[in-house]
Amino acid sequence: MTEHTHTSDRPDVPELTIPTGITPFFFPSARGRLIRLDQLANTLLERHQYPYAVSKLGGEALALVSGLAAALKFEGSFSLQVKGEGAVSLLVVDCTHNGELRFYARFDKEKVAQLPKESSAAELFGKGLFALTVDQQNDKDTYQGMVEITGNNLSEMASHYFESSEQLSSWIRLYCEHTPDGWQAAGLILEKIASDPSIILKNEEEIINEEEWNTLTILAETITAKEILDPALESNELLYRLFNSTSITIGTPKPVSYGCRCSRSRLENILKTFNQDDLDTMNENGNIKMTCEFCRYDFIFKQDEI
Asked: What average pLDDT does the segment 164-178 reach?
């Protein structure tokens, strides 16, 4: 695959789509998404060549954000930003409403090397902030919620965010492992649907809803990493196996894909805002190189172009 194409506006990056990456499912008082990124996880993670612990963290974050973005009811994107004071100082993942995924991380190589290979998210980030942003297209409102990092792993951090920032009962499990076939990443998200305040028997309804929610989370806890990361096990079969004693309804699968939105023209416009001294500093043998942190693609500009 060609990594450097100077004449094209868009980078030469993999065109990969997983048509059944997100499987939505529903219950009377809850909804959920089963996320299975399949070979897309390996393509995204291998592009960066991060240390094992950072790649594993990135895979879990990709599963989380793609699952959350699948619930968007408008054109836009859903993004995660985690800023830490530890070995990993920044993790950014975003996904569009139609499933286009990208991510990158910033970290101290020496600090990461000193940590165990299977370090938790808490060990990698240390103290910091966990933020989720919903961005609508066409310059409409942007919503961001932010909380302090709380929890040992990314699943717990996301659950804490929804409980404290959104007052939403959720159950989240994220998985990422390096298998003989490469990286696999997946997730299971359950969200409790609030009771309808217009119903007269509100207290009775809440009791029924709470009982169903407890049952669903108990059943969800039985899922194993081996099951959810097994590409031979179809998503519908996995969901029926998990929730066969409930009134589950499985929705239409949604795609996920490799999707970086960088472009040569966008970066060229950024370069045009620099003064001559800055451009001279960036100049290497008559060329200026700008690298997209999301897709690791190098755009090469001749200085006389700018």
From this structure: 90
